[in-house]
Task: structure prediction
Amino acid sequence: MVVSTSLSDVSLEKGWAAPGASLVRDVSLPALVIHRQALEHNIHWMQNFAHKSDAELAPHGKTSMTPALFRRQLEQGAWAITLATAVQTRAAYAHGVRRVLMANQLVGAPNMALIAELLADPLFDFHCLVDHLDNVVALGRFFEARGLRLNVMIEYGVPGGRCGCRDEQQVRELAAAIAAQPALALTGIEGYEGVIHGDHAENDIRLYAASLVDLAVQLQHQHAFALDQPIVTASGSAWYDLIAEAFDARAVRGRFLSVLRPGCYVVHDHGIYQEAQCGVLERRGDLIEGLRPALEVWAHVQSMPEPGLAVVALGKRDVAYDAGLPMPLMRYRPDVEPAVGEDVSACRVTRMMDQHAFMQVAEGCELRIGDIVSFGTSHPCLTFDKWRTACLVDEQLQVVENMPTYF
Result:
């Protein structure tokens, strides 16, 4: 008998599960798990927040690179999907996304060629960032040679931050350089406040957002934009409320299309974004409830070699560890149906290796080899990219959909 080992066989993918399978009984672990109820709550919550803020929502798709999530976000009213690279853009386009904000510079002829190929579709609306004359000239030459016009937005950064023009004069000079390129259209201005830190971050972010809008107004007065209603966009997943308030306070409504770009909200987390959400709710007493953690990674207890130590079959190849180690949540017994979880949040992961997590077992917590532990994560982006498939589960922990990722 010949056994197929083709990697195209979806049933061999890490984390894949047959629909209707029980995570406790039928799924090969470890597995990436998304809880449907929390997911649907988060998508609706953020879309409603954007609507009440008189803003459009362009969720950052790099978080998950999961078209099944893009589709749900767009169906709920998202204006576009934000992405970070040309390859990500092509993957999203292949799955039906027809408006993309690439919150990054488009650099290098091979990447430009990928976008040029997509721009052959007149229904594809694409905008990328520029922050330097060299990039403007290179883009202008490349797209003019192909008879195409590329939409670009100027990125306005902060000193010591990431990309972006560092002062207003650079922005004005870059706008003039774009105007000199027939193949480029200036459609807006973009910023990212997530690189602003320190004891005065909240105030500094408000000042930065105000400066961003003031620059947009200046450029509009100079007739620098190719759109009657240019795009003004910022916000990651931590400070979106401050950006929305600053945009509103600067009289953006009607003059500009304000676009918020959080990404991690779609599944939220149990770590850094949970902390950030507490700050949002403290600042905004009008918000009802908040986002819910929807993402977990499930794994078996593999070994208990010493008293008080459990080694779990979960490692750096399965879950993010850049912003905190995974957090034990619940324990399930694989031979107990229906699944009844026991709180094991008093346990603690102390260190990780490629395929193993060392978990300190809390006093009074009874664990056995083969028990299943669900773990919360911090920073979902770097958990998603370790998986080719996520399991969407219902309230009974039955798999209702496999969600492929495209990193």
Remarks:
- Residues 197 and 204 are 8 Å apart (CA to CA).
